[in-house]
Model the fold of this input.
Amino acid sequence: IRRGSRCSTAKAFLRPARHRKNLHIALNSHVTRLLINPATMKAFGVEFIRNGRKQVVFARKEIILSAGAINSPQILMLSGIGPKEHLSQIGIPTLKNLRVGENLQDHVGMGGLTFLVDKPISIVQDRFQVFPMMMEYVIHGKGPMTTLGGVEGLGFVNTPLGNRSWPDIQFHMAPASVNSDAGKKVKHVLGLTDTLYNAVYKPISNRDAWTIMPLLLRPKSRGYIKLRSKSPFQYPIINANYFDDPFDIQTLVEGAKMALKVSKSKVFKQFGSKLHTIPFPNCRHVPYGSDAYWECHIRT
Done:
């Protein structure tokens, strides 16, 4: 947040520091590997491709690898740090045999919980006109563009299955749902089939709605990152391994039930909030609202 508005990381951190003499930002650069002394196991440089040319920078003090949960292990393995058996299969000499990439965790969420309201307060495609909204935001600082990426409410809760010392479910609350754009974009972003969308969400296209998305904060399932080849330009193999541990799905089911309790609270009654109860076609074999149904919904 910058001056009351959402802004990019570049504006928040890089722009104020862009004139520092010791800050150099290399655009159009792709790191290929770290340079590591095999005798001391100390990283002393970074090799990268910039505008089609291989370049190297050397470090006087230290190298901070900050390429994210996917690319950090990829770069380490390309540099020879990782599981020896896997690196040998790829043809990369192993400098250090470590279980790099074997502890992938993700806070998987449950989408699709939709609550209809009887007042025009949500974001729907029929009212979504870019220019008027932009002018309302620029001139008055109001309107749909004031929302932080669509998420207007956050919550952290403890399910009965978790440790009371910390929350195990996070809620994202948004003034829209899967139906809000009549299937133009959200459906495709979420990868919903025509069968599912047409049965569940098409009947309420462009209706005012809101949603709660429960997210798993402390998953027990572990996925992995592996190299596809020695090429740093090939995307790595990503296996999130969602719900490998049954405890995770049980926790999300509890999160769904707590989300329903939140939706029934007094503050939402003024908007006539009601759960949209058309069941998923592939989940009709179990009673709607049962634990078995929510598990089916989550897995779908």
Q: What stands out?
A: The chain has two domains: 9-97, 114-221+243-299. The longest strand covers residues 29-37. Residues 71 and 228 are 13 Å apart (CA to CA). Residues 114-221+243-299 form a domain with the Cholesterol Oxidase; domain 2 fold (CATH 3.30.410).
